[in-house]
Amino acid sequence: MRTLITTSGQAKAAGNDAIEQCLANAHEAGLWLDIEAPDAEDFSLLEKTFRFHSLTIEDIQHQNQRPKVDEYPEYNFAVIFQASWEGEEVAFREHHLYVGPNYLISVHIEPSTPLRELQSRIEKSPELTKGQPGFITYLVIDTLVDATFPVLEKLDETVDLLEDDITEKASPDSLNRIYHLKHSVTEMRRFLGAQRDVFQRLITHGIHLQQQDMTLYYRDVFDHVVRQYETVDSLRDLLTSAMDVYLSTVSNRLNQTMKTLTAIASLFLPLSFLTGFYGMNFALLTGVLETPYIAFAVGVGTMLIATMIQLYFFRRRGWI
Amino acid sequence: MRTLITTSGQAKAAGNDAIEQCLANAHEAGLWLDIEAPDAEDFSLLEKTFRFHSLTIEDIQHQNQRPKVDEYPEYNFAVIFQASWEGEEVAFREHHLYVGPNYLISVHIEPSTPLRELQSRIEKSPELTKGQPGFITYLVIDTLVDATFPVLEKLDETVDLLEDDITEKASPDSLNRIYHLKHSVTEMRRFLGAQRDVFQRLITHGIHLQQQDMTLYYRDVFDHVVRQYETVDSLRDLLTSAMDVYLSTVSNRLNQTMKTLTAIASLFLPLSFLTGFYGMNFALLTGVLETPYIAFAVGVGTMLIATMIQLYFFRRRGWI
Amino acid sequence: MRTLITTSGQAKAAGNDAIEQCLANAHEAGLWLDIEAPDAEDFSLLEKTFRFHSLTIEDIQHQNQRPKVDEYPEYNFAVIFQASWEGEEVAFREHHLYVGPNYLISVHIEPSTPLRELQSRIEKSPELTKGQPGFITYLVIDTLVDATFPVLEKLDETVDLLEDDITEKASPDSLNRIYHLKHSVTEMRRFLGAQRDVFQRLITHGIHLQQQDMTLYYRDVFDHVVRQYETVDSLRDLLTSAMDVYLSTVSNRLNQTMKTLTAIASLFLPLSFLTGFYGMNFALLTGVLETPYIAFAVGVGTMLIATMIQLYFFRRRGWI
Amino acid sequence: MRTLITTSGQAKAAGNDAIEQCLANAHEAGLWLDIEAPDAEDFSLLEKTFRFHSLTIEDIQHQNQRPKVDEYPEYNFAVIFQASWEGEEVAFREHHLYVGPNYLISVHIEPSTPLRELQSRIEKSPELTKGQPGFITYLVIDTLVDATFPVLEKLDETVDLLEDDITEKASPDSLNRIYHLKHSVTEMRRFLGAQRDVFQRLITHGIHLQQQDMTLYYRDVFDHVVRQYETVDSLRDLLTSAMDVYLSTVSNRLNQTMKTLTAIASLFLPLSFLTGFYGMNFALLTGVLETPYIAFAVGVGTMLIATMIQLYFFRRRGWI
Amino acid sequence: MRTLITTSGQAKAAGNDAIEQCLANAHEAGLWLDIEAPDAEDFSLLEKTFRFHSLTIEDIQHQNQRPKVDEYPEYNFAVIFQASWEGEEVAFREHHLYVGPNYLISVHIEPSTPLRELQSRIEKSPELTKGQPGFITYLVIDTLVDATFPVLEKLDETVDLLEDDITEKASPDSLNRIYHLKHSVTEMRRFLGAQRDVFQRLITHGIHLQQQDMTLYYRDVFDHVVRQYETVDSLRDLLTSAMDVYLSTVSNRLNQTMKTLTAIASLFLPLSFLTGFYGMNFALLTGVLETPYIAFAVGVGTMLIATMIQLYFFRRRGWI
Prior knowledge:
Order of helices and strands of chain A: EEHHEHHEEEEHHHHHHH
Structural class of chain A: alpha+beta
Oligomer: homopentamer
Radius of gyration of chain A: 35 Å
Largest sheet of chain A: 7 strands, mixed
Mean pLDDT of chain A: 86
Strand order of the largest sheet of chain A: 2-1-3-7-6-5-4
Shape of chain A: rod-shaped
Largest interface: A-B, 46 and 58 residues
Helix content of chain A: 55-70%
C-alpha cells in the first residue's frame, strides 16, 4: 500500500506515473513515498525507477536487520527501529528509509500508526512541511524516533510499581515479571545503542540530510535518541538491583518463617518434656504427685515459668 | 517573572524596553536576564527581540530535556540540571541558558534558590562581577553547578549511616532505603554524566564563553562537575556492595535463628524421649521403677547427662 | 582435498598445473581454491607456487589461532571462525583465507558444510559469481559469516526455554545447563569480538577486497558480524540474570518447605503438649478426669480450639 | 611553617626576602619552598610575590579538590593526593604544587612525613639534587607518589588475610571489614584514577617539568601511578569476590546447622513415637507388655533398629 | 651468570672483553647476552660498557615493576612477565630486556627455563637465527611470551574440572579453590593487560625491533599476547559464574536437607500426637480402650492412615 506526500499535502494517486512525475518535481515540492507491506510491484519500482542497490532491496525482504545507515553515492539507506507495546510485550517495528536529496521513501511491513498519523496531519495542514522538501524527511524521522518514548515511559512506570511490590510481597510472580522486563530492556538497549550510532553518523556524514541547513533539527533528534539510550541503560541497572532486592526480601521472609518455627518449638518442646516428666511411672514420683493440690500447682507452675522464660528471651531478641 | 542584572547590579525594571536598552549596552555593562516561570510574553521576547531559534523555545516549553549544549552562530543554548532535596527525594531542576557574547539569559520554571541568592549578592556588592560582562555568566554557571554539592554530601552521609545500620539490624526498611538511594543515584549519575560532556564541549567549543579569557574559570567549573560525577559513581558502587552486605547479614541472622532452634530441639527431644521411655507401660520397667529413690535418681541422672552432652557439643561448635 | 572454482563454475582437476594455469588467468576468471585437510603437498603448493609467508603456513599447521587479519604486500591472510552445533555443544571451526587481488585460497582441516554447499551452488549456476573474480571472495566470506546465525538462533531459543523452566522448577539440572550455556556464550563472545575487529580492518585496510568496488558488499557482511556480536552480548547478560533468577527461585522454594514444616510443628506440638498434660500422673488431675463425658469433651475441645487458633494464624499470614 | 630548599641544601631562613633572593637565583640553584599549614602571610606571598592566580589560592583554602593539573602560562598548578594509614582507616592527604620553570612550591595543611624526610635527606646529602633545579621537583613528586605504596601493600596483605578468615569463620565482623575495605578501595580508586590522568597530562603537556630533559624520570613516576591504579582495581575485584565467598560460606554453615537439626529430629522423633506407643493405655497392649522380659526386649529392640536405620541413612548421605 | 649467544651459536666465554668484542661485531653476527641473578659486576657492565640509563638499572634492582617499555634514543628497555606454575600457585617471572639495534640483553633474577632451552636449541642449530641479528631478539621475545600458554591451558582445565565438581558436591573446599583461582586470574589479567599495551607500543614505536623487516614476526607475537589476554578475561568471567553456581548449589542442598526434616517431622509429629492421645488418663477413654482387639485396631489404623496421608502429600509435591 503506497501513500504519496508532498509539501502541498497528500497526493491523490500513488501509481508509478504519479510517482515519477512527483520525483521530477521533487527539488521544489519534495516527495515522501510511504510503502506498507511492499509487494513485487513495489520492489520493481524501487529497483527500476529509483535504481536503488539490490542489497538494500534484499535487506527489506529479509527484515531482521539492525539499525544501520549505508551510504550510497545518490542516497542514504537507513534502518530505523521503533518500539511499541504489543499486549504485554515490547515489539520492535522495523522501518527502511531511502533518504535522497529531495525525496524520502519509507518501507515497512506492518502498518505504522505514527506514520499514518503524521500523514493525516500533513494532509490537514500542509504548512507543517514549511514548504521545504527536506523538512518532510525530518518530520518522518522525528516521528519514528519519538514514537519510542511512550514505551520507555510505560517501562519506567512498571519498574517503579515493581519496587513497592517486591519489598512488600516478593511473590514468584514478580520475579517472573522482573526477568521478562530485563529481557525486553536488554533487547531495547541493543537496538537503541545501534540507533544512537546511526544518528551520529547520519548527522556527521549524511549529506542528503543537511541540505537546506537541517543540521539543527537532526541534532535535536539525536539528543532524543541519546536520552532514550540513557533511560534504558538506567532501567537495566535498576532491574538488576530489583533482582537483588527480591532475593534479600525472600531471605528476610525465610528468616521470619524460621523465627515462628523456633518460637513454637521453644515454647512447646520444654512443656512437652515437663508433661512427659510428670507422666513417668516412677513410684516415688507418682507417690509425691498423690498429694493433690500443691503438687498440681507446682506442676502447672513449672510449665508457666518455662513459658515465661521463653517469652522473656523472645522479647529480648526482639521477636515479639 | 523577570530579573535583570548588569555588572552594576540589579536593574529597576525588566520590561521589554529596559531589556532592549541594556542589550544595546551589553558589550560594556553585560546583561543577565533571569526568567522564572516564563509566560507567553516572555517567549515572544525570546523569539522576537533576541531572535532565538524556535527549537530552543520548544525545548523550554517541553522541559524534560537532558543536559546538553547546542551551538548556534550567535549564541550557545545550554540545558543544565541542578539537584536538590525535595523532602526525602532528590529532585532535578532544569535550567535553560542562552549564552551570548555579552549576555546571558537563564530560564527556569520552578523558583531557583541558588540563582536568587546570587542575584541578591550581586545587588549588594556589584564588584563581584569584576565589571566584566563575561564574569556574570561564569558566576551563574558556577552557582548552578556548585548547588549540587550539598545533595551529594547528604547522599554520602546517608550511605555512611546505612553501613552501620545494615550490619547491625538489616531490617526490610533499610533494604527499602538502599533501593531508593540506588534509584536516585542512578538517575543522578545519568544527568551528571551528560553534564560532564556538556562542560567539556562548552570549554573546548563554546566561543562565547571564552571572551575576556575566562577559560581558567570554566576549567575550574569543569573540575567540579567531574568530581561530582566521580562521587556519584563511587556511591553507586557502594550501594551495590551495601545490598550484598544486607543479604549476607540476613543469611547470618537466619543461621542464628536456626542455631537457636537446633539447640532447643537438641536439648529437649532426647529429654522427651527419656520421659517417654520412663512412661512406658512395660510391667518389667514399671516393676523396676517401683524401687523409689535409686530408680528416680537414675532417671533424673540420665536426663542430666543427656543435657550435659548436648551442652558440651554446643560449646565445641562455639554456639554458647 | 582440493576443490577449484572459477567464475565459470567448478574446474575438473585441481592438480598443481591446473592451479597455475588458472592463476595466470585469474584476473579474468577469478580463482577460488578450497583445501580441506591440507597435506605436505598442499603446504608446498602454498609456499612454493603462491610464495606465501612461512608464518602463515605455521598458523595453519598449529591451528588454534584467534580471528585475525595480517596484511602482506601481495595478499591478506585472514583467520575466520564459524560456530556450529556438535551434538549439544557449540564447536568452533577455523578457516584460513588467503585473499589476493584476483584469487582466494581457503584452508580448513575439518570438512566445511557451508563451503561445500556454496561450491555446488556455484557449479549449478555460475552466474552467481556475476563473472567477477572479487565476487567469489565475497560469496565465500559471506557464507562463512552467515553460517554462525543458526547457532545463535538455537542458543537464543534455548535461553528462552530456560526462562520458563527456571521459574517453574529450578532443578539442579537447569543450573547445570545455564552454566554450560554461559561457557559457550563466553567463548563465542570472545571469538565474535575478535571477528568484528577483523572485519572492520578488512573493510578499511583490506585493499585486495575492494577492487571492483565490493565495499558495499563487505559493509553488509560487517553489519552481520556486529549483529552476531550484539546478540551474543545480550545472551550473556540474560544468562547472568537467569542464574540470579534460579537462586531466587530456590530460596523461594526453601521458604515454601519451611512454611510446611512450621505449619506441621505449629499444629502438632501444642496438641502433643495437651495429650501429655492429660497423661500426667497427678492424682488430682486423674481424679478430675474420672468424670467421664464432660472431662473428655473438655479435653478434645481444648485440642480443637488449639488447632483452630493455629489455622486462623496461618490464614492471616496467607499460608493457606 | 615554611621550609626552603635549594640544590645546595636547606636554606637557613625562609623569610620573604630570602625567598625573593633565592627566586632571583633559581635558574641556577633551584628553589623548593614547602609551606605547611599556610597562614594569611603565606597566601599573600603566593599572590603578591609569585603572582599566582587567585583561583589556585582559593583551591588551597577550600581543600577537598580532586587530583588535577591546571596549566598557566608561567607555571603548572597541580593537586596531588597521598594515601596514608590513620589508625585503621585510609586517609588522603592533599598537596598543592606550583611547578615553575626553576622552582617548586608545595603547600599542605597537615604535616607531611614523606616531604619532611626528603628535606632532611637533601640537607644531609645535597648531591641528591644533581645540582639541577628541575631534579628537586622530580624528587618531591616521586616522593609523594611512592608514599602511597605502603598503604597499598598493607591493603593487599589485609585482603590476603581476609581470604582465610572468610572461608574458615565467616563472622559478621569479617563482613564488616570487607565492607569497610571496599569503601576505602573505592575512594582510593577514584583518586588514583584522577591522579593517573594528571600524570599523563603532566608528562605530555607539562612544559615546566621537561626542562633539562627530565622526561625519562617522569615516565618512571607515571609507571608507578599506573601500577598503583591497577593494584587498587584488582583489590576492588577481589573484595567483590570476597563478599560472594562470604555469602556462600554462611549458606554452607546454615546447611551444616540444618543437618544437625535434621539428624537430631530424625533420631529422636521416631523414638518418641515408639515410647509413646508403648505408653498407650490400650488394655490389649498393656496386657501384652505384662510378659516381662521378651516384651521389654522387643520394645528396646525396635528403638535400636529405628536408630540404626537413621544412622545408615545419614552415612549414605555423607552426613557422618 | 652470563650466557653469550650470537647468530653462529653460543660463545665460549662471556667475560667483559668477549662481550665488547662481540658488540663491536654485532651489526653482522648479532648479540644476545643473558644475565641471570645479576651481581655488582654485571650492573657495572650495563652502566659502563653499554651506558644504559641509571633508571633502568634501578628497575632491575627493585624488581616488582609492571610490564612496560621505555624508549631511549639508543635502545628500548622492556619489562616482560612470564607466568609459570610454582607448585599449586601461579608465579610471575620478571624479565628485563634491553633491545638495541643489533643486540639484546636479557636480565632476570630467577633461572629461566624457557630461555635456557632456547639457548641450547640455538647452540645445537644456529641456523634457527637465520643469520640475522634481529631474529635472535624475536626468538627470545617469542619464547618468553609463549611460555605463558601452558599456564593458561592448565588454568582452563582446572576451571573445566571445577564445573563438574561444584554442581555435584559444592564442598567448602571447592569454594576455596574458586577463590584462589580468581585471585591468580585477576593478577594474571592485570599483567597481561599491561603486556598487551607493551607489545602494541613495541610494534608501532619500537624502531630497533623493526630493522630487517621483522614487523610481520612481532605482529604474530602481539596476536599471541592478545589471545592470552582474551583467554584470561573469559576465565575471570567463568569463575564469577562458578561462584554463583556454587551458591545456588548450596541453596539447593539446603532445600534438600529441609525437605528431609520436614518429611520426618510430618510423619512422626502426628503419630506422637496419636500415641499421646491414646495415653491420656481419661477414665472414659481408658474405659473404651479396655475392649481389646477392635480398639487397638482402630488405634493402629488411625496411625497408618495419618502416615498414608503424609506419604500421599509428599508424592504430590514430588519429594519421594
